[in-house]
Structure of TIGR02301 family protein:
Amino acid sequence: MSYPARAVDPLYQPQMERLAEIMGSLYFLEPLCKAGGVDWRAQMEGLISADEPDEDRRQRLAGAFNSGYTSFSRLYQTCTPSASEALTRLLVEAEKTARDVHSRYAE
């Protein structure tokens, strides 16, 4: 029995999935706690376009984004001090992760 060949993920795939999850979380939290923020969904679309993933990776990135959004939407209905703290920490982690991926894997 033969199986179709599977594409090999790039080395940065785990960081990309984490970044996608963070961006989904920010997409929920930022409008809740801070008016006029970044459109994290548009940022995610731009990231996916720039990365040019195959369909499997595209689905995993979108799934990670949706998972981040869903996780926080279940916890918060209003901006609480803990939601605000989560937003701050996620912004820091997003910046660090994006910088790390860029510095290690960009051309």
